[in-house]
Specification:
This protein is α+β, with helices and mostly antiparallel strands and 243 residues long. It has a single domain, classed as Porin (Beta Barrel). It is built from 6 helices and 12 strands. The strands form 3 sheets. An 8-stranded antiparallel sheet has the order 4-5-6-3-8-11-10-9. Pfam families: DUF3581 (PF12119).
């Protein structure tokens, strides 16, 4: 499975190092959010990687909802547990829950289809910023803290007409931002298509932190830094990991 190098298994627990998480974010998701850098002060494992591991271990269900409850840090041993037929919990040995998953409908365990679906699903994260969020924030007259831009997943959900599609593509159909004080609630809606026909819908909900009035100059600096990080590439952090 293509995910094997992005986590390790110790004593029956899934462990994701900061370096593995960073590599997944950059290589698979195209996500250069600095919070996923190995040396980030508030480092956390990408929600997309947890999503991908759930699908690889338990299959892709026709209807799934992922709710992120806590940030996963470097190397925390995680138990991925089924709680009945329709629920999966990701927690540590102290019982702290990091991710709750609800599922229903038909299930596929076809590895090729799940990999293709996962790659397309998480690659959408690489288009969140600046492609989608920048014009969205600009239109609402707000932006995140440019010194510490915080963009985090709150939940993801998917509803598929079938789990037998040979291939599927994700296309953004709607984006919305609601400002509530210093918090921004973003809803991204996607249409899933196969052979140019709709086969399902996907919704991702994100949280923006430290909202303030929109500043074109500050946003330009954030975007410049984003592309600097992107140019640095997926190899960032490998020296530290190998030292």
């Amino acid at each position: 499975m293509f995910l094997d190098r992005f986590y390790s298994v110790r004593d029956g627990r899934i462990c994701i190092s900061a370096f593995q998480a960073s590599q997944f974010a950059k290589e698979v998701a195209g996500d250069f959010n600095p919070i996923h850098d190995p040396d980030a002060r508030r480092f956390c494992v990408p929600g997309d990687l947890l999503f991908a591991v759930v699908l690889s271990r338990f299959g892709l269900s026709q209807n799934m909802t992922f709710r992120f409850r806590s940030l996963v840090g470097d190397g925390i041993p995680l138990a991925f547990r089924e709680d009945g037929e329709h629920r999966i919990n990701v927690c540590d040995d102290n019982g702290k829950v990091y991710l709750e998953v609800e599922r229903s409908g038909a299930i596929t365990h076809d590895e090729r289809f799940i990999e293709d679906f996962t790659r397309g699903y998480v690659a959408a994260s690489g288009k969140n910023f600046p492609h989608t969020l920048k014009p969205l924030m600009e239109s609402r007259g707000v932006m995140f803290n440019p010194d510490r831009p915080m963009v985090m997943y709150e939940s993801m959900s998917l509803a598929l007409d079938t789990v037998d599609a040979s291939s599927a593509e994700l296309e953004l159909s709607n984006a919305d931002l609601e400002a509530a004080g210093k918090r921004g609630n973003v809803t991204l809606e996607y249409q899933l298509t196969a052979d140019n026909k709709p086969v399902g819908e996907v919704t991702k909900r994100l949280v923006l932190g430290g909202l303030r009035p929109y500043s074109p100059e500050a946003m330009a600096e954030v975007i410049e830094e984003f592309y600097r990080l992107k140019a640095r590439g997926a190899d960032y952090g490998s020296e530290a990991a190998n030292s």
